[in-house]
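ok so I'm stuck.
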Amino acid sequence: MYHTRPTVADVRARKAAGDTLTMLFVETPDEARAAATAGIDMLSIIAPLWTPEMREAAGDCFVQVGLL
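replied:
not stuck anymore, here's the structure
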């Protein structure tokens, strides 16, 4: 499935426009899928969990992948 995740430029433009963005830390594909379905804008995921399954579950959310 093809997703249209926002870019950094998209996020910056929304912030500049005064939009409030939502962000959530997720640890499982089910959590990522639920967050995407609920309309969460951004997901924070630790690097070891960033798998192809997690990528698909994240839907159109902007994803920030970080360290433990």
